[in-house]
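FAQ: What does a ligand-bound record look like?

Like this one, built around flavin-adenine dinucleotide:
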Amino acid sequence: MVNHSKPFDIIVVGAGPGGASAAIHAAENGYSVCLLEKEPLGITGRYKACGGAIDWKMVEALAYPEEKIARVIDSLELHHLDGESYSKKGEGAVVWRSVFDKYLADVAVAHGVVIKDDEPLVAIEKQGPMYTISTTKEKYQATYVLASDGISSPTLRKLDWPRFPREDLILTITQEMKISKQTIAKFLGHSSLHLFFSIKSLSHLGYAWLFPKIDRITVGWGNQLIRINKSREEFNLFLNMPFVKDLLKNSTTERFKGHLIPVSVRPQLFKENVYAVGDAGGLVDPISGKGIPYAIESGQIAINTIKLCENKGVQYKQGHYYEETLGKDFLQLLREKRVARDRIYQNDQTLKQFLTLWEKHRSSEIVRRGLI
Ligand SMILES: Cc1cc2nc3c(=O)[nH]c(=O)nc-3n(C[C@H](O)[C@H](O)[C@H](O)COP(=O)(O)OP(=O)(O)OC[C@H]3O[C@@H](n4cnc5c(N)ncnc54)[C@H](O)[C@@H]3O)c2cc1C
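The answer part, i.e. the structure of the complex:
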């Protein structure tokens, strides 16, 4: 095994949106950065099971090229299987995560970040002030480590950090379907995402979705892991709904994948120069499962924390500053949403009450103002 000769300031593990954004921000601030990714990124990036819905504000903030957008959207159509429907307006985009993550990785390279893809972390060790990370190919050293390697975070597992409680894991199933543009337009319209809810007949603590892209549909379903008996059969309940069956009649399946979403904040977010970022820290909206913006923000906040503490000479306060800044931005809100989620998913009545409110208000406003 080769030793990478010069230590980096920061090693970022995982080139999802959290890791790539953190690496870009670190390089912009003058740090030497190595971004390690388990999968080969190639020309087109790697597949990631994800709806890929983002706000238009994010498209602008990242200068995300319009030609890389899989569909521009202006509404979320919320369907309760009892028959009620709600329409939530809002500008956004749907992206393929392979394309989105590759774009961010390319920006990182343009900023001078060293990317090592197809190189999973297999071990991490602390020797004095330095971390040594071994991949399947090399060893690298750095002062700081950002664990942005997703919900199962091998980095944090190897460091023996506390895990997520099983009750806070949502199991999702994603099926990517090839379908004609005409069928999408006929059944789903040109610019809407469709979400389906029912506690009694679809998901105890989640929902199902149809996210149209150009000539594909991402079909998904999620439910609390501990409540699932036979995930495939429960997912099929959605596929067998008459509307969905009709829509997908002439489509072909290209991918089928299960993936977990964490819906509570990890009990620890920092220790000894290691930061948990994005899904690795459980920084996901517990009501909607939205995680891309929190991954990006937490990665940037981790870098700001490193810089601030170095400048002030108070490295021992990193954990405090990281949690404090995350807290001001969104951590407290995510915790409040985790509590509110249990009220929302008590029964179909409370769920419909939430959908009625969600049509007109942001979910943060519903939670903060105690509307539910
Ligand atoms: C089905 C589904 C639908 C979703 N839909 C949406 C949505 O529409 N909008 C939204 O905002 N959020 C959505 N989310 C949530 C969103 O996907 C995550 O919150 C987001 O990807 C988190 O980004 P991240 O950078 O923290 O981690 P990830 O995107 O999970 O990236 C982690 C990276 O680490 C790499 N890695 C793992 N192990 C190693 C290792 N040993 N060494 C090196 N690298 C490693 C992985 O290959 C991966 O590239 C969805 C999630 C799921 C499961």
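Follow-up question: can I read anything off the structure? Yes, for example: The first helix runs from residue 17 to 28.
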